[in-house]
Amino acid sequence: MSAKALIVVDVQNDFCPGGALAVSGGDEIVPVVNRLIGTFDHVVLTQDWHPAGHSSFASTHPGKNPFETVAMPYGEQTLWPDHCVQGTSGADFHPGLEWTKAELVIRKGFRPAIDSYSAFFENDHETPTGLGGYLRERGISDLTLVGLATDFCVAYSAIDALRLGFTATVLLEACRAIDLGGSLAAMKEKMAAEGVVLG
Ligand code: VGL
Ligand code: ZN
Predict the structure, then answer these.
(1) Measured torsion, CA atoms of residues 153, 156, 158, 160, in degrees rounded to the nearest 10
(2) Rounded CA gap, 197 and 170, in Å?
(3) CB 180 within 8 A of CB 67
(4) Catalytic residues, which ones?
(5) Whose CA is nearest to atom 6 of ligand 1?
(6) Residue 2 has what pLDDT?
(7) How buried is residue 137: exposed, middle or buried, by Cβ count under 10 Å (0-12/13-18/19+)?
(8) Which residues are CB-contacts of 7 (< 8 A; sequence separation ≥ 6)?
(9) How far is CA 13 from CA 116, 133, 143, 148, in A?
(10) Could you tell me what percentage of the chain is helix, strand and coil, using 3-state DSSP and rounding each to the nearest 5?
(11) DSSP 46-60
(12) Which ligand places an atom closest to the C-alpha of 184?
């Protein structure tokens, strides 16, 4: 049996216009995502969920500004404005998102010393979130990914999904990008090269 799931990545207030790390047009995807939610038997949401003072926040690194990078033990890390702090309204799902049908909400980025773009592994590419095991145990093998941001959490999630043996389709009309220094084109190319279906 090969069941399908829709993975809705980080459709949270801080990634929408007015939010701390607003993605241009981030809110425009909400009706598109809602329609998709209606067509899938299984829906999983991810939620970026950082403690205050998280190591991915520029404010945690004296002298650093958002969108600069810093060397972490696990590699280069882009620094972000404080965003999606646990329990704040910025970390809430967009109020228009029809999330009631979701069977699982997977939170990521809660370890202070490590960021997590992917819904499957944190940025060391080793620490699992548990999502891969959850989906496998439930007999779900085919994934469709949508959400924010195309070139970060959606792309890293889709690539890790393939590496774990799932199929992965990213529906670009239901995604919006941060596009930092050409990251959208680069990550679209990387996804295609890895075998992610871009729809
Ligand atoms: C994301 C940057 C930092 C994302 C999360 O959801 O794409 N990007 N945290
Ligand atoms: Zn984050």
Answers:
(1) -130
(2) 6
(3) yes
(4) 10, 108, 153
(5) 153
(6) 81
(7) exposed
(8) 44, 45, 46, 119, 143, 144, 145, 146, 147, 157, 161
(9) 18, 28, 24, 11
(10) 30, 30, 45
(11) EEE-BPTT-TTBGGG
(12) 1
CA of 47 to the centre of ligand 1 (A): 10
Name which residue sits closest to atom 1 of ligand 1, judged by CA.
Answer: 153
**Of how many residues is the chain composed?**
199
Among candidates 95, 91, 11, which has minimal Cα distance to 45?
11
Mean pLDDT per block of 10 residues along the chain (199 residues) reads 93 98 98 98 98 98 97 96 98 98 98 97 95 98 98 98 98 98 97 97
Tell me how far apart the alpha carbons of residues 196 and 190 are, in angstroms, rounded to a whole number.
Answer: 9
pTM for the full predicted model: 0.97
